[in-house]
Amino acid sequence: MKRSLLFAAASLSLLGASVAQTGPSSGASTVLASIKSGAPTRMVYELDARAMVFILPATGRASFTVDMKPDSYAIKSRVRTTGLADVFVNYDMNLNASGTTSAAGLKTTKYTSQNNDGKKNRRVEIDITDKGFKMSAKPKFGNLGDPAATAEQVLLTNDPLTALITFALEPRAKGADPCGGPIKIFDGRQLTYLHLKRGNANTVKVKTPGWSGQAIECHVTMDKVAGYKKGESNNDTLTGISGPLRMYLAPLENGAHVPVKIVADTDKVGKVTLTAKTLRFEPLVTTAAATKTGGGR
Q1: pLDDT, tens digit, 9 for 90 and up, residues 177-221
Q2: Of 43, 184, 249, 253, which has the most beta carbons under 10 Å away?
Q3: Element (H, E) at 130
Q4: Is residue 198 in some structural domain?
Protein backbone atom coordinates (compact mmCIF):
# COMPACT_ATOMS: atom_id res chain seq x y z
CA MET A 1 0.00 0.00 0.00
CA LYS A 2 2.97 2.33 0.43
CA ARG A 3 3.36 2.56 -3.31
CA SER A 4 -0.36 2.88 -4.02
CA LEU A 5 -0.56 5.73 -1.55
CA LEU A 6 2.25 7.59 -3.30
CA PHE A 7 0.47 7.11 -6.63
CA ALA A 8 -2.71 8.35 -5.02
CA ALA A 9 -1.03 11.36 -3.48
CA ALA A 10 0.63 12.16 -6.79
CA SER A 11 -2.67 11.87 -8.61
CA LEU A 12 -4.31 14.30 -6.25
CA SER A 13 -2.10 17.09 -7.51
CA LEU A 14 -3.04 16.61 -11.16
CA LEU A 15 -5.07 19.75 -11.56
CA GLY A 16 -2.82 22.39 -10.00
CA ALA A 17 -3.28 25.79 -11.67
CA SER A 18 -0.53 27.68 -13.49
CA VAL A 19 -1.57 31.04 -12.04
CA ALA A 20 -2.62 32.15 -8.57
CA GLN A 21 -6.31 31.75 -7.76
CA THR A 22 -7.90 32.40 -4.40
CA GLY A 23 -11.36 30.85 -4.68
CA PRO A 24 -14.09 29.48 -6.92
CA SER A 25 -16.29 31.97 -8.72
CA SER A 26 -20.01 31.75 -8.09
CA GLY A 27 -21.97 29.94 -10.75
CA ALA A 28 -18.87 28.58 -12.46
CA SER A 29 -19.33 25.36 -14.39
CA THR A 30 -17.41 22.44 -12.93
CA VAL A 31 -14.65 20.76 -14.93
CA LEU A 32 -16.65 17.55 -15.32
CA ALA A 33 -19.81 19.39 -16.35
CA SER A 34 -17.88 21.24 -19.07
CA ILE A 35 -16.37 18.01 -20.38
CA LYS A 36 -19.72 16.25 -20.27
CA SER A 37 -21.34 19.07 -22.25
CA GLY A 38 -18.87 18.60 -25.08
CA ALA A 39 -15.47 20.05 -24.20
CA PRO A 40 -12.95 17.15 -24.24
CA THR A 41 -9.87 18.11 -22.22
CA ARG A 42 -6.32 16.85 -21.87
CA MET A 43 -4.20 17.51 -18.79
CA VAL A 44 -0.43 17.07 -18.84
CA TYR A 45 1.23 17.25 -15.43
CA GLU A 46 4.52 16.70 -13.61
CA LEU A 47 4.80 16.29 -9.85
CA ASP A 48 7.99 16.49 -7.83
CA ALA A 49 8.65 14.82 -4.47
CA ARG A 50 11.57 15.68 -2.22
CA ALA A 51 13.00 14.37 1.03
CA MET A 52 16.30 14.84 2.84
CA VAL A 53 18.47 11.86 3.76
CA PHE A 54 20.95 13.26 6.24
CA ILE A 55 22.05 16.36 4.31
CA LEU A 56 21.51 14.93 0.82
CA PRO A 57 18.33 15.11 -1.26
CA ALA A 58 16.27 12.13 -2.34
CA THR A 59 13.84 12.99 -5.09
CA GLY A 60 11.08 11.54 -7.23
CA ARG A 61 9.06 12.59 -10.23
CA ALA A 62 5.68 11.60 -11.57
CA SER A 63 4.26 12.47 -14.98
CA PHE A 64 0.62 12.16 -15.99
CA THR A 65 -1.46 12.51 -19.13
CA VAL A 66 -5.22 12.58 -18.54
CA ASP A 67 -7.61 12.56 -21.53
CA MET A 68 -11.25 13.18 -20.67
CA LYS A 69 -14.10 12.94 -23.16
CA PRO A 70 -17.85 13.37 -22.55
CA ASP A 71 -18.36 9.63 -21.96
CA SER A 72 -14.91 8.22 -21.22
CA TYR A 73 -11.45 9.01 -19.87
CA ALA A 74 -7.96 7.53 -20.02
CA ILE A 75 -4.95 8.14 -17.77
CA LYS A 76 -1.30 7.30 -18.43
CA SER A 77 1.24 7.73 -15.66
CA ARG A 78 4.94 7.12 -15.02
CA VAL A 79 6.33 7.38 -11.50
CA ARG A 80 9.99 6.88 -10.66
CA THR A 81 12.63 7.87 -8.15
CA THR A 82 15.81 9.72 -9.01
CA GLY A 83 19.11 10.30 -7.27
CA LEU A 84 19.60 8.83 -3.80
CA ALA A 85 15.98 7.74 -3.53
CA ASP A 86 16.99 4.61 -5.44
CA VAL A 87 19.08 3.58 -2.45
CA PHE A 88 15.88 3.22 -0.41
CA VAL A 89 13.33 2.09 -2.98
CA ASN A 90 13.76 1.33 -6.66
CA TYR A 91 10.59 3.00 -7.79
CA ASP A 92 9.67 2.74 -11.46
CA MET A 93 6.00 2.25 -12.27
CA ASN A 94 3.84 2.56 -15.37
CA LEU A 95 0.13 2.91 -14.65
CA ASN A 96 -2.94 3.16 -16.89
CA ALA A 97 -6.58 3.71 -15.98
CA SER A 98 -9.71 4.15 -18.05
CA GLY A 99 -13.43 4.28 -17.49
CA THR A 100 -16.58 6.36 -17.80
CA THR A 101 -17.11 10.09 -17.36
CA SER A 102 -20.16 11.77 -15.83
CA ALA A 103 -20.86 15.24 -14.42
CA ALA A 104 -20.66 13.70 -10.94
CA GLY A 105 -17.33 11.91 -11.32
CA LEU A 106 -15.16 9.29 -12.99
CA LYS A 107 -15.64 5.52 -12.64
CA THR A 108 -13.01 2.85 -13.31
CA THR A 109 -13.58 0.08 -15.83
CA LYS A 110 -9.93 -0.92 -16.37
CA TYR A 111 -6.66 -0.39 -14.46
CA THR A 112 -3.15 -1.70 -15.12
CA SER A 113 0.01 -1.24 -13.08
CA GLN A 114 3.45 -2.49 -14.10
CA ASN A 115 6.17 -2.38 -11.49
CA ASN A 116 9.78 -2.45 -12.73
CA ASP A 117 11.60 -2.59 -9.41
CA GLY A 118 14.06 -5.29 -10.49
CA LYS A 119 12.55 -7.76 -8.02
CA LYS A 120 9.08 -9.12 -8.69
CA ASN A 121 8.32 -6.72 -11.56
CA ARG A 122 4.66 -7.45 -10.91
CA ARG A 123 1.93 -6.57 -13.40
CA VAL A 124 -1.62 -6.14 -12.09
CA GLU A 125 -4.71 -5.84 -14.28
CA ILE A 126 -8.24 -5.06 -13.07
CA ASP A 127 -11.50 -5.05 -15.05
CA ILE A 128 -14.60 -3.73 -13.29
CA THR A 129 -18.21 -3.89 -14.49
CA ASP A 130 -21.44 -2.92 -12.75
CA LYS A 131 -21.77 -6.53 -11.54
CA GLY A 132 -18.27 -7.51 -10.40
CA PHE A 133 -14.56 -7.46 -11.18
CA LYS A 134 -11.68 -9.56 -12.49
CA MET A 135 -8.10 -9.21 -11.27
CA SER A 136 -4.92 -10.87 -12.52
CA ALA A 137 -1.40 -10.47 -11.15
CA LYS A 138 1.86 -11.81 -12.62
CA PRO A 139 3.59 -13.01 -10.54
CA LYS A 140 0.58 -13.87 -8.39
CA PHE A 141 0.08 -12.37 -4.95
CA GLY A 142 0.95 -14.77 -2.14
CA ASN A 143 -2.53 -14.13 -0.76
CA LEU A 144 -5.32 -11.58 -1.16
CA GLY A 145 -5.46 -10.56 2.50
CA ASP A 146 -7.51 -11.56 5.50
CA PRO A 147 -10.22 -10.70 4.79
CA ALA A 148 -9.96 -10.39 1.02
CA ALA A 149 -11.93 -7.69 -0.79
CA THR A 150 -15.39 -8.75 -1.98
CA ALA A 151 -17.06 -7.81 -5.25
CA GLU A 152 -19.62 -5.71 -3.36
CA GLN A 153 -16.82 -3.72 -1.74
CA VAL A 154 -14.82 -3.25 -4.95
CA LEU A 155 -17.85 -1.89 -6.82
CA LEU A 156 -17.90 1.08 -4.42
CA THR A 157 -14.29 2.02 -5.23
CA ASN A 158 -12.02 3.28 -7.99
CA ASP A 159 -8.42 2.48 -8.86
CA PRO A 160 -5.76 4.69 -7.15
CA LEU A 161 -5.40 7.14 -10.05
CA THR A 162 -9.10 7.53 -10.81
CA ALA A 163 -10.08 7.75 -7.15
CA LEU A 164 -7.88 10.73 -6.48
CA ILE A 165 -8.53 12.55 -9.75
CA THR A 166 -12.28 12.33 -9.38
CA PHE A 167 -11.92 13.48 -5.75
CA ALA A 168 -10.29 16.68 -7.01
CA LEU A 169 -12.86 17.24 -9.77
CA GLU A 170 -16.12 16.26 -8.13
CA PRO A 171 -18.36 19.24 -7.32
CA ARG A 172 -18.75 20.00 -3.61
CA ALA A 173 -22.27 20.63 -2.32
CA LYS A 174 -22.86 24.11 -0.93
CA GLY A 175 -21.94 24.16 2.74
CA ALA A 176 -20.18 20.77 2.60
CA ASP A 177 -16.73 20.20 4.07
CA PRO A 178 -14.32 21.30 1.31
CA CYS A 179 -11.95 18.50 2.31
CA GLY A 180 -14.53 16.05 0.93
CA GLY A 181 -14.05 12.31 0.95
CA PRO A 182 -13.96 9.54 1.82
CA ILE A 183 -11.75 8.45 -1.06
CA LYS A 184 -12.34 4.77 -1.82
CA ILE A 185 -9.40 2.95 -3.45
CA PHE A 186 -8.80 -0.58 -4.74
CA ASP A 187 -5.38 -1.47 -6.21
CA GLY A 188 -6.04 -5.12 -7.08
CA ARG A 189 -5.43 -6.45 -3.59
CA GLN A 190 -5.80 -3.78 -0.92
CA LEU A 191 -9.06 -1.90 -0.48
CA THR A 192 -8.70 1.34 1.46
CA TYR A 193 -10.79 4.34 2.45
CA LEU A 194 -8.99 7.66 2.94
CA HIS A 195 -10.82 10.00 5.32
CA LEU A 196 -10.23 13.74 5.27
CA LYS A 197 -11.03 16.39 7.85
CA ARG A 198 -10.28 20.08 8.14
CA GLY A 199 -6.90 20.57 9.80
CA ASN A 200 -7.06 24.34 10.20
CA ALA A 201 -10.12 26.54 10.44
CA ASN A 202 -8.40 29.26 8.42
CA THR A 203 -6.89 28.99 4.97
CA VAL A 204 -3.12 28.70 4.73
CA LYS A 205 -0.78 30.53 2.38
CA VAL A 206 0.81 28.03 -0.02
CA LYS A 207 3.32 28.74 -2.76
CA THR A 208 4.49 26.07 -5.19
CA PRO A 209 5.90 26.21 -8.74
CA GLY A 210 2.43 25.29 -10.03
CA TRP A 211 0.12 27.35 -7.81
CA SER A 212 0.11 30.05 -5.13
CA GLY A 213 -2.67 31.39 -2.95
CA GLN A 214 -4.77 30.58 0.11
CA ALA A 215 -5.27 26.83 0.44
CA ILE A 216 -7.41 24.61 2.66
CA GLU A 217 -5.48 22.32 5.01
CA CYS A 218 -6.86 18.79 5.31
CA HIS A 219 -5.61 15.88 7.39
CA VAL A 220 -5.82 12.37 5.94
CA THR A 221 -6.24 9.10 7.84
CA MET A 222 -7.04 5.68 6.44
CA ASP A 223 -9.35 2.74 7.00
CA LYS A 224 -7.79 -0.54 5.89
CA VAL A 225 -11.01 -2.24 4.80
CA ALA A 226 -9.77 -5.44 3.12
CA GLY A 227 -6.80 -7.07 1.43
CA TYR A 228 -4.37 -6.54 4.31
CA LYS A 229 -2.65 -8.99 6.63
CA LYS A 230 -4.76 -10.43 9.42
CA GLY A 231 -5.17 -7.85 12.15
CA GLU A 232 -4.25 -4.86 9.97
CA SER A 233 -7.82 -3.99 8.96
CA ASN A 234 -9.37 -0.97 10.66
CA ASN A 235 -5.91 0.38 11.47
CA ASP A 236 -6.29 4.09 10.73
CA THR A 237 -2.60 4.89 10.31
CA LEU A 238 -0.90 5.48 6.98
CA THR A 239 1.85 2.90 6.54
CA GLY A 240 5.28 4.39 7.24
CA ILE A 241 3.87 7.82 8.11
CA SER A 242 3.98 9.46 11.54
CA GLY A 243 0.92 11.58 12.25
CA PRO A 244 -1.62 12.72 9.65
CA LEU A 245 -0.74 13.23 6.03
CA ARG A 246 -1.27 16.95 5.46
CA MET A 247 -2.92 17.90 2.19
CA TYR A 248 -3.43 21.47 0.98
CA LEU A 249 -6.36 22.00 -1.39
CA ALA A 250 -6.52 24.93 -3.77
CA PRO A 251 -10.12 26.09 -4.35
CA LEU A 252 -9.93 26.84 -8.07
CA GLU A 253 -12.04 29.10 -10.24
CA ASN A 254 -13.50 26.07 -12.02
CA GLY A 255 -15.02 24.74 -8.78
CA ALA A 256 -12.44 22.00 -8.21
CA HIS A 257 -10.64 21.53 -4.88
CA VAL A 258 -7.18 20.40 -5.89
CA PRO A 259 -4.26 19.38 -3.66
CA VAL A 260 -1.27 21.51 -4.63
CA LYS A 261 0.97 20.42 -1.76
CA ILE A 262 1.15 17.20 0.27
CA VAL A 263 3.39 16.77 3.31
CA ALA A 264 4.10 13.56 5.23
CA ASP A 265 6.50 12.77 8.08
CA THR A 266 7.86 9.31 7.29
CA ASP A 267 9.66 6.75 9.43
CA LYS A 268 12.52 6.15 6.99
CA VAL A 269 13.45 9.45 5.34
CA GLY A 270 11.80 12.12 7.49
CA LYS A 271 9.60 14.74 5.88
CA VAL A 272 8.49 14.11 2.31
CA THR A 273 6.90 16.97 0.35
CA LEU A 274 5.05 16.64 -2.95
CA THR A 275 4.36 19.78 -4.96
CA ALA A 276 2.72 20.51 -8.29
CA LYS A 277 5.53 21.56 -10.62
CA THR A 278 3.94 22.04 -14.05
CA LEU A 279 0.50 21.68 -15.58
CA ARG A 280 -0.93 22.20 -19.03
CA PHE A 281 -4.63 22.19 -19.93
CA GLU A 282 -5.39 21.86 -23.60
CA PRO A 283 -8.38 20.96 -25.78
CA LEU A 284 -8.45 17.28 -26.64
CA VAL A 285 -8.95 16.94 -30.38
CA THR A 286 -11.04 13.83 -31.02
CA THR A 287 -11.56 12.09 -34.36
CA ALA A 288 -15.17 13.30 -34.47
CA ALA A 289 -14.14 16.89 -33.76
CA ALA A 290 -11.40 16.80 -36.40
CA THR A 291 -13.86 15.49 -39.00
CA LYS A 292 -16.44 18.14 -38.12
CA THR A 293 -13.90 20.96 -38.59
CA GLY A 294 -12.53 19.50 -41.78
CA GLY A 295 -9.47 17.91 -40.21
CA GLY A 296 -10.54 14.46 -41.35
CA ARG A 297 -10.70 15.29 -45.06
Answers
A1: 889 889 999 999 999 999 999 998 899 999 988 888 999 999 998
A2: 249
A3: none
A4: yes
